[in-house]
Amino acid sequence: MNKIKLEPHRHDAIQSPPISRQQRTANDHISPVTVMKNKRKMWRHMLLSGAVTALLVGSSALPISIAHGADAINGAATVTAASTSSIPSSTIAKGGNQAYPNIVFLGDSLTVGYEPDRKASSYDGFTVRLKEQELFRGRATVDNEGILGLTSSGLHNYLNAITAGKKVSTSDIQSSLPGAARTLDGASVAKQIRSANLITITIGGNDFLNALGSLTALPQDLSGLNLEPVISGYETNLKAIVDQLIALNPSATIVIADQYQPVPAVSGAGVYSNLNALAAQFSEIVSQTASSYKAQGKDVRVAHIAEAFKGNELSMTHIAEGDIHPNASGYQSIAVAFSRAIWGENGYRTPPTSVNATDRTIVYTNGRLLNSSTPPLVRNGRTYVALRDVTTALGARVAWSEQTKQATVTGSSKVIIPLNGNAIRVNGQNVPTDAPAFVQKGKTYVPLAVLADGLGYDVQYVKRWKAVFVRQ
């Protein structure tokens, strides 16, 4: 691989008091949120003084465990113009409707979806948005195995434990992970990976940080730094990671993000140019790694996330607040880039603008927008849908009995739904419900829970679009 030359500039090194080993150890015993806030104060001070540390995605000191299959869908974000930048045609996927019902997310804080001052339960990163994209194509079961602060060697070590089916402590896979150690279940994750149709990876930001050395004494002239060991180590680890994943699951599609750089041009022309050159070198490793596996007939792709951030660092990250992670706009751009790598140039989908403009809940049945004159209703915080419209669209039959005041739905199961009742009957068995069906303007409305519990449909609600996805 051709190495990118770093052009020297005449600037003094940035000097700050070093962080002692005792201070780092002490961080393990204080609130992780406090640790991150302290680091953000340092980064903000450096940014405002023009002395910006070089950090990439994933460099974090907050150890948070992400729940598997989290569906936190909060807030809304728009795609910036930069997020629709051109993507090399060699990485565009075929088959925009291809379903990936089992998805595993691996990597660092970018996979976690970290944003400052947000609770982990409300993270709304690119993985949440990719799950939403899968709902247009099929059912979605997702497992997020992101670990804040993870390096490529840490992920390699984690995959060693996964391959062996062993439990492992976070302190054993990577000693630099701060906070209290926790146990990871390698056997459980191995099962997830073997069942996966799609695996995404974000890794390398912390390798980039390690290449630069101390956060507190970083020269704007980077030409004197010996970066080769970290860069070559990243290349070796990335190949090993992909090898491990292919050994666990030879048929899964693997998509790896390239590396973006969050420091804006206001940091100085020299350091900005050099940091982008370093990021490009890491990204080139990702591209060449994917190409080498593609030549072997393996489905390994690149999500080109980096280009959209160039020139948009301040609007797409929290860097102005002293934090290097993407904001909502940044994560939206990353989701678009992954969607393109997975489903093609127009792979990222949203409901039609004309539908969104109505500000009402919309329904998709088996991935298709349900055109109905009876839109969903909300009562007491519950969403109700017109029973006949939805079930007919999904191929079920509905019969109404005026005498008994109940609807009978026949599909893969037989469900009897009485009006204003506190239970429904599924194949002869009573199933309690605290949201009874009702009639309005000649239409029988049922809560989403009835579709899921009674008819066995998969029902998902996406808050950002006010959209209900119902699938057999």
From TrEMBL:
This is Lysophospholipase L1-like esterase/predicted nucleic acid-binding Zn ribbon protein. The keyword Transmembrane applies. It comes from the Bacteria. Residues 365-465 form the Copper amine oxidase-like N-terminal domain. The chain crosses the membrane at residues 46-66. It comes from Paenibacillus hunanensis. The lineage of its organism: Bacteria, Bacillati, Bacillota, Bacilli, Bacillales. PANTHER family: SGNH HYDROLASE-TYPE ESTERASE DOMAIN-CONTAINING PROTEIN (PTHR30383:SF5), THIOESTERASE 1/PROTEASE 1/LYSOPHOSPHOLIPASE L1 (PTHR30383). Residues 1-13 have a biased composition (Basic and acidic residues). Residues 1-29 are annotated as: Disordered. InterPro entries: Cu_amine_oxidase-like_N (IPR012854), Ester_Hydrolysis_Enzymes (IPR051532), Mao_N_sf (IPR036582), SGNH_hydro (IPR013830), SGNH_hydro_sf (IPR036514). Residues 105-332 form the SGNH hydrolase-type esterase domain. Keywords: Membrane, Transmembrane, Transmembrane helix.
